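TA notes, week 10

Several of you asked for a full example with nothing omitted. So below is the full record: structure tokens for the whole chain, then the designed sequence directly under it. When grading your own attempts, check the secondary structure regions first.
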């Protein structure tokens, strides 16, 4: 028996059992929300972290890290897999105060000279701080270089960012975490420069069943959604594989062409490999 024989017959058997829905389960994943931050470095070498992504079927991923050196460690090992985003945080303490610190804008501007980044973020921000000079400067830098901003913000704040900085493409982390499907859909209708990733959104498919409200938005805007894991603490690396399996489970409940775009196609189109 050749090495391929058993695989081919397994695939054929699954095709009979699963029909067209199986295809979604096999799609490569573009993960729009990975961090490789300082505490992760002791637990996982760059190759160890990359092998976790590979086992999960994540073929490419947006990576940002605190500090940014973590992103560059992964990027240098795997430039065709890692889509580097420049996180403005030098330390974890910057998370809550970066928008008020002119040093952050200088730090971002200096790092951007490397020319490898495809976006700035993920960052956290409240609506009241959208007009801070540091935020404006970072939005200018993004517009000049055609970079995405990856924003972990609520619905009010994403709307304000989109109105203030109409030239910038926004990737909305966690679909705002608390924004419901209707709100997300309304914003996608109104703002063509908004994309949405769904890391940690268990409400998309409670108990594994795709929610009808979310399904309707995916069908209306199949080109605007991506999936993600968010390794925001080191322990999250242990669940990348199972979280990605859960995502494939709800993707398989969508029409195959829509599932393919959300799983892989949108990320691959927006961030072509170098
Ligand atoms: Zn995150």
């Amino acid at each position: 028996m050749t090495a391929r024989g058993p695989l081919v017959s397994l695939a054929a058997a699954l095709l009979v059992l699963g029909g067209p829905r199986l295809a979604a389960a096999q799609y490569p994943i573009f993960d729009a929300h990975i961090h490789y931050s300082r505490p992760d470095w002791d637990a996982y070498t760059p190759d160890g972290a990359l092998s976790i992504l590979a086992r999960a079927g994540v073929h490419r991923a947006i990576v940002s890290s605190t500090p940014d050196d973590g992103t560059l460690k992964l990027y240098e090992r795997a430039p065709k897999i890692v889509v580097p985003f420049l996180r403005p945080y030098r330390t974890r303490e910057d998370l809550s105060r970066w928008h008020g610190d002119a040093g952050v804008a200088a730090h971002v501007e200096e790092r951007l000279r490397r020319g490898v980044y495809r976006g700035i973020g993920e960052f956290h921000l409240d609506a009241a701080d959208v007009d801070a000079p540091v935020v404006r400067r970072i939005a200018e830098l993004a517009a000049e270089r055609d970079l995405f901003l990856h924003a972990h913000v609520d619905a009010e704040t994403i709307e304000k960012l989109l109105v203030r900085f109409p030239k910038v493409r926004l990737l909305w982390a966690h679909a705002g975490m608390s924004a419901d499907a209707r709100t997300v859909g309304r914003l996608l209708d109104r703002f063509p420069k908004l994309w949405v990733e769904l890391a940690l959104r268990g409400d998309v498919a409670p108990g594994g069943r795709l929610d009808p409200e979310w399904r309707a938005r995916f069908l209306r805007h199949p080109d605007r959604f991506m999936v993600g894991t968010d390794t925001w603490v080191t322990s999250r690396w242990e669940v990348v594989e199972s979280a990605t399996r859960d995502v494939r489970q709800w993707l398989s409940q969508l029409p195959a062409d829509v599932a393919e775009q959300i799983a892989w196609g949108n990320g691959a189109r927006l961030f072509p490999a170098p």
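Confidence is low (pLDDT under 50) at residues 1-21. Use that as a sanity check on your answer.
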